[in-house]
Structures are given as structure tokens and as C-alpha cells.
Design brief:
Elements lengths: L1 H12 L9 H17 L6 H18 L6 H28 L8 H24 L13
Helix pairs in contact: 2-4, 3-4, 4-5
Length: about 140
Amino acid sequence: MKEIKKSGQELLLQTPENLPKTLLQKLRAGFFLVIGYLLSPLCWWNDLVFNLPIAYFFGYICSLFAPKLLMPCVIIGYWLSNIIGILLMQAGAIDIFQKQNQENNLKKELLTGLVSSTAYTFLIVILIQFNIIDTPSFFSGN
């Protein structure tokens, strides 16, 4: 009987910081992590299935306002889909691995994700410009 009282008191004394994450929180974090991975440049096959259709749709919507915006907006849409993927992956990973008692600063997390994604994009462009990595033949002027 004493054990039941003791365990009941322990449950009442638990604060939200000490409670384990709920199943819904874990599922949401896992969903963000998976969708983010599928949209991010870390997934090697995602472009044909996810990013290019999203980018084309974004460009198509922009071209309804001005037809010359199709290609520039496709490029911007592709870049944005990769950025959103990295940000979603970061949000999911933070939800899964970070302790609950730590306060989340959304602005700081978004800024960190945006800066790291942009730095990654610039790094890839620099590697291509200095011929450290090759691009497919349809990117060459031949």
C-alpha cells in the first residue's frame, strides 16, 4: 500500500520538464525529419521525385504573373525546397534529441538553419566553379 502511495506521489511531483515525450511529439518530430530528409540535398534521388516538381510548380505559379519568370522562379523554387528540407530536418532532429527543459528559440534556430543551408549552397557552387566536382553534361555549354 505504501508503494502505491509513493508511486502516486511521484507522478504528481513530476514536472513537464521531467515527463517523457508523448507519442504524438515523437511522431511529429520523426515526420519532420523524414520529410526534411526527402526534400534536402542529402537524399540523392529526391530531385526527380520531389524537388523538381515542387520547383516547376512554383515557377509555373510565378509565370502566371509574368511568363519570363518561369525559369528564374524554378531555380528559386528548387533552392527553397532544399532549404525547407534542411530546416525541417533540423527541427525534427532538435525535437528528437534535445532535452525538453531547454527553451527553444525559434528565430535563432531558423537563422542557423538558413545560414547553414546557404553556406552549403555556396560551397557546392564554389566546388563546381573550381572543377573540384563535376556536373552532368547538360549543364555544360556544349
